[in-house]
Amino acid sequence: MYKIMMFEGGVYKYTELKELIEDIGGFILQESIMQTETILHLAFPGEEEQEIRNKVKELGGKLQDLPLAGTEIMIVVPSLGKHHSVNPLCDIAEFLRRKGAITNIMGLARGVGKRIAQMTVQEKAIIEECDAAVFVFGDFKECIEEKMKLCEMIEVPYMIVGGPPDLELEHYVGGIGRVTDRMRRKKEIDTLQEMTVKLEGILAEKRKEMEEDPLAASPLFIKEMIEMIMPPKAGEELPLVIQLDGLRVKIGEEDEERIMDIEVGEKKLSAICEMKKSLYEGYLLKILPEAVTGGVF
Amino acid sequence: MEVKVEGEDEFANKSYEKICQDAFRNIGVRTSIDHTYLYCNPKEHVFIISVKIGQVSSPVKVGDIIQRGKDKLKITDEKYAPRLLTLLWDKYGKRVQQVSRLEIGLKLEEEEIEALSDLIVYDPREDLIARILDGIDRILPEGARVRSPIPSTSRITIIASENPIEEDWKKKAEEMVSVVGEHV
User: Which range of residues forms the domain containing residue B164?
Assistant: First the structure.
């Protein structure tokens, strides 16, 4: 299994770190250099961690664990109105991003209220394109219990965030109700941390299930292969989003066939992946299990 | 501004108290409100808010927001600059020009300049009700879209729910508001 960590440091000899990662069979997931500040998201085999740590120490940088890296998470609020955004919606999204996740924000068309709250089939399908969903509901116990029914329809792992601290619901974190300013106080950050730990637990269950029936190739490896053939265009942000069991590829219709012809090991991408158009953005590549496709090498 | 929130859930009450304070402060009407009373009943989905309007700050005059120079005015509070310029252009036309971001050039008679200071740029009373209603809209839960106002002097009272407003709630609201009104 790959371990994903974030390197923060200067530009001094950082290319040596990149070379080391490539030598040990790892990948650079994200790279951003702002003047002298370098941030790299690194994925490498877990057993090589010490070697990476030694190199980072030599360069005088910092390594930080990214528990949610390699996942795409949808944050769902009843509406995008003033009541929910920017706080706490963006605070939650920002916190999850700092933990390595790629986050999307979604306001339901008719999600407000108690009795009248609804979720359309299309909204449900969009949420299910992601690895997990975080539902942000308000302050009232009765409303959260009622809206819980909406979440139960969802087929991907989810968690609910709301105000009352003592609700006995599955995957629920309390203490984040309606917020009027940025969540920057220690108590609020602790609640966000608690939420992240719970989400990590939910995703760990999904990861464990996938380990029992491993994928034909890691999404990280496929990303690398795609980037070799179709390098990201200048100014393009996150053209390839890694998910637990696949990738979101932001390409136009003209590149659809080209991408399926990319070779991964001895097989073509079309042989190990199912591709469908996303309702939200780009195309979704779902990697089939190795048991179905056979090994790629 | 004093805020009282009544409801069964302790957490929600505390949270809504803060929401009331912050929503009215963000809009800039907090100092013009004496008392806010909010009743929350999520079980039946009824929310009643009653706002008692207090003293409203006095109108802002040109003299309050400018420094006078020779043939020039310097704006000291940029917040009012657009309103000030509109007022002066309406009154004096092309004889008033914005020289730079905070400077206004004048080609006026001496008496006109003297009278300038007393012109009213902004009267907070003008849009007070609209702003308070905006604040109420931000406080009440989004789902409670069916609204019913209860008329009274110097008080804005609104019943909100996602269901049709029942007569019982109206009576209850009137009773509550009159009781609360006596104590404040």
Answer: 2-55+126-183
Tokens of A67: 């528990």
Q: Is A173 on the interface with B (CB under 8 A)?
A: no
> Could you give the CA distance from residue B88 to residue B93 in angstroms, rounded to a whole number?
7
pTM score of the predicted model: 0.90
Q: Is the pLDDT of residue B180 over 70?
A: no
Contact A285, A230 (CB under 8 A): no
pLDDT of B97 over the 70 cut: yes
Residue A28 pairs with which residues in a beta bridge? A42
Total count of domains within chain B: 2
Distance from CA of A108 to the nearest CA of B (A): 12
Give the C-alpha separation, A68 to A100, whole Å.
5
> Are A142 and B138 an interchain contact pair (Cβ–Cβ within 8 Å)?
no
Put simply, whether A85 touches B (Cβ < 8 Å) is no
Mention the CATH class of domain A2-65: alpha beta
Percent of chain A, pLDDT > 70?
Answer: 100
Task: Please enumerate in sequence order all residues whose Cβ is within 8 A of that of A181, keeping only pairs 6 or more positions apart, or say none.
Answer: A87, B22
Give ipTM to 2 decimals: 0.86
- pLDDT of the residue at B108: 86
B40 and B75 inside one domain: no
| Maximum CA extent, chain B | 67
Q: What is the pLDDT of residues A208-253, one digit of tens each?
A: 999 899 999 999 999 999 999 988 887 777 789 999 999 999 988 8
Contact residues, B window 109-138, toward A, CB-based 8 Å cutoff = 138
Fold classification of A72-210 (topology level):
Rossmann fold (3.40.50)
* B9 vs A164: CA distance, rounded Å: 8
Chain B neighbors of A164, CB-CB under 8 A: 9, 11-12
